[in-house]
């Protein structure tokens, strides 16, 4: 047994392989970077998800403590902890879904791209493990800069011969969560009633909210459009500055990651009509990766939706977004191809 999986001494513990509600087998989920600011609340939320039967928590530090803590929750998922590189393969073997929030976060004054040097290396190592131990798992990549790390992961999988573009998803859900919240404040609605598509990527001008496609259908003054676009594009920086050196968004991100992972699991289970925005391999633009709405199914991102009609403001935003995205994606590709 892996460490942190408590033995009962003389007492024989009978841990059941839990079944998700409705009798279907549950899914096996790993969180890589589980002891971090995102990883800990995300572990808590995934332990509460009735679709999860086994939860593996991997980190290079503090995994035993987080595992012991989360494992005491009386929900169905069996929790196991894994500490350090020698246990990476055990953490990954047999997983259906791997969520990656491993890596360093921003401090005030930094861009997400400033994290590339460290985080691209971390993502490479973790994805090499995935290619070897669970090549069919769906991967939810959170580590920044997402606009580059998704390309890093894709190149690692291509090199290993395991790349399935449908199963690699960059997580942009926090942009949608923020957009729903900020738009709801302007419209005076409950955020749960609001749906804002956010396309492009996950950094500054590459985050492109499509306010002309908000549901319920709404119109905004030019001042409101400027305010909302700026607030959504800089939501991450708003949190980084408020935390004043203590990191970036962790709690709202764990919520967003859990929401997106749940959508992926519902898709894997065969639920119809599961649609979320994500940064995926795409033919929607000339770029190899782009965030749009995707339909999640048994194979991962089974359908990538087109952008739909854009207004002039959004068309201009799209051009700016594509320019920056092209460079960020290429940086990720070059990191592996050399
Ligand atoms: P954190 O520093 O609190 O936690 C990161 C964790 O990763 C730490 O526990 C660390 O030990 C672990 N780690 C480092 N190297 C590792 C490795 N090789 N293998 C496994 N684990 C490793 O940071 P955080 O606030 O949790 O943020 C994590 C990442 O998520 C950052 O890159 C951040 O920019 C990004 N992020 C992305 C989004 C998004 O919307 N996609 C939102 C918020 C944060
Ligand atoms: C976010 O959007 O909150 C994350 O990408 C973290 C960051 O650096 O802003």
TrEMBL record:
Top EC group: oxidoreductase
Annotated catalytic residues: 202
Catalyses which reaction(s): (S)-malate + NAD(+) = oxaloacetate + NADH + H(+)
UniProt keyword terms in alphabetical order: NAD, Oxidoreductase, Transit peptide, Tricarboxylic acid cycle
Cellular-component GO terms for this entry: chloroplast
Lactate/malate dehydrogenase N-terminal domain span: 28-170
Keyword Metal-binding included in the entry's annotation: no
GO molecular-function term, one example from the UniProt record: L-malate dehydrogenase (NAD+) activity
Similarity annotation: Belongs to the LDH/MDH superfamily. MDH type 1 family.
Protein name from the UniProt record: Malate dehydrogenase
């Amino acid at each position: 047994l892996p460490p942190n999986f408590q033995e009962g001494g003389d007492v024989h513990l009978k841990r059941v392989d839990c079944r998700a509600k409705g009798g279907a087998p549950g899914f096996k989920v790993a969180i890589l970077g589980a002891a971090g600011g995102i990883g800990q609340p995300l572990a808590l939320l995934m332990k509460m998800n009735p679709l999860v039967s086994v939860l593996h928590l991997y980190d290079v530090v503090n995994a035993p403590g987080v595992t012991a803590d989360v494992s005491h929750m009386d929900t169905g998922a069996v929790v196991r902890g894994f500490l350090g590189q020698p246990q990476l393969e055990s953490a990954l073997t047999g997983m259906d879904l791997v969520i990656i929030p491993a890596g360093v976060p921003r401090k005030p004054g930094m861009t997400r791209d400033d994290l590339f040097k460290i985080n691209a290396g971390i993502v490479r190592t973790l994805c090499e493990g995935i290619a070897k131990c669970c090549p069919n798992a769906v991967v939810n990549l959170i580590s920044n800069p997402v606009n580059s790390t998704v390309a890093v992961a894709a190149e690692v999988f291509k090199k290993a011969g395991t790349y399935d573009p449908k199963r690699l998803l960059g997580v942009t859900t926090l942009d949608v969560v923020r957009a729903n919240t900020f738009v709801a404040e302007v419209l005076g609605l409950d955020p749960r009633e609001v749906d804002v598509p956010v396309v492009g990527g996950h950094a500054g001008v590459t985050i492109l909210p499509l306010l002309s496609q908000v549901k319920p259908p709404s119109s905004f003054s030019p001042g409101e459009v400027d305010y909302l676009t700026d607030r959504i594009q800089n939501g991450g920086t708003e949190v980084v500055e408020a935390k004043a050196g203590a990191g970036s968004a962790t709690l709202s991100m764990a919520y967003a990651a859990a929401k997106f992972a749940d959508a992926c699991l519902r898709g894997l289970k065969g639920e119809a009509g599961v649609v979320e925005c994500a940064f995926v391999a795409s033919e929607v633009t000339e770029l190899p990766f782009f965030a749009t709405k995707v339909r999640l199914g048994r194979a991962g991102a089974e359908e990538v939706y087109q952008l739909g009609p854009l207004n002039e403001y959004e068309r201009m935003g799209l051009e700016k977004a594509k320019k920056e995205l092209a460079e960020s994606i290429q940086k990720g590709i070059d990191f592996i191809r050399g």
